[in-house]
Amino acid sequence: MGEIQREPILENEEEDTQAELDVWKYVFGFGEMAVVKCAIELGIADAIESHGDSMTLSELSSALACSPSQLYRILRFLMHRNIFKQTPNNQGPIMLAPWHALSTRALANGMPSFEKAHGEDLWSYGATNLAHTQLFNEAMACNARLMIPAIFEGCGEVFDGLGSLVDVGGGNGTAMGLLVKACPWIKGINFDLPHVVSGAPNCDGVEHVGGDMFQSVPKADAAFIMNVLHDWGDEECIQVLKKCREAIPKQKGKIIIIDPVVEEDNKTGDYKLNDFRLMLDMVMMAHTNTGKERTMKEWEYIIKEAGFNQITVKPIRAVQSVIIAFP
Ligand SMILES: C[S@@+](CC[C@H](N)C(=O)[O-])C[C@H]1O[C@@H](n2cnc3c(N)ncnc32)[C@H](O)[C@@H]1O
């Protein structure tokens, strides 16, 4: 019998990735069988069958007395393996319906469009419709995957020297996960509403904390707040920014705001980017009660009212800019 030789060292990246996946398959290959067994024990297929039609995550979790966030993770895996299928349901209309009520919002004392369509605001709606919250957070996570590299490219130095960072309204923690991956010296805190963080996946270097940013914000060297303040009116933003200020060191702390800055006139900036910022302003009008996109003058007003003295703005390769505020 001839000598058995080791396979030559793999040369290209694709082969490396395949080899890594193969190793994982040998280690956890039984996982699929175990999760199918779990689905049988929970009675997922039986529940859907006896319901007679497709079910929403919240219907299925109450029928099975399961935690919606844990059940969602199991189903996500099984759907990925084509064992269950997600059918297009009423998620689109949830975000579309408020647009039909946009004219109501424009009236003097008009009702917010989302409330008119669904009877409550977007965030309260999400607390009782966890499938919608999951979908919303996944959509925001996709955006975060584009935003974080753009922020690093445009002003990565803003994270230098930070020992800890809290992402206020950080959703499922995707942004903070990417931040600590790029800056492993940072202890990351992902802060959002309790029902949002309870469905968030674990991520190395990131602690999920549930709470209400209008009450208090976890302490850290700096606060990061992306695509959040534009959801709120001036008074609410001032309140959140004050809570952020209380959470950071008085001397060396800073708040890193990622949000659009609307150009006052279209002469100086990029026309297409500004056009999209104005479109986002319409989205805020349709989806939030008090949110809006702001000009630099409007940003300065709320930031100064919240007690910050110094403001720096850095445009990045995105619709949003980076606004850094120092106490
Ligand atoms: C538009 S999303 C932005 C998510 C994330 N920062 C991003 O850019 O991907 C706004 C986030 O604010 C969170 N939020 C709303 N009200 C909140 C509150 N009172 N306290 C903490 N987070 C809140 C929502 O749950 C949501 O995750």
TrEMBL record:
GO terms, molecular function: O-methyltransferase activity; protein dimerization activity; S-adenosylmethionine-dependent methyltransferase activity
Pfam families, sorted: Dimerisation, Methyltransf_2
InterPro entries hit by this protein: COMT-like (IPR016461), COMT_C (IPR001077), COMT_dimerisation (IPR012967), SAM-dependent_MTases_sf (IPR029063), WH-like_DNA-bd_sf (IPR036388), WH_DNA-bd_sf (IPR036390)
Cited SUPFAM superfamilies: S-adenosyl-L-methionine-dependent methyltransferases (SSF53335), Winged helix' DNA-binding domain (SSF46785)
Protein keywords: Methyltransferase, S-adenosyl-L-methionine, Transferase
GO BP of this protein: methylation
Active site per UniProt: 230
Name of this protein: O-methyltransferase
Organism: Quillaja saponaria (Soap bark tree)
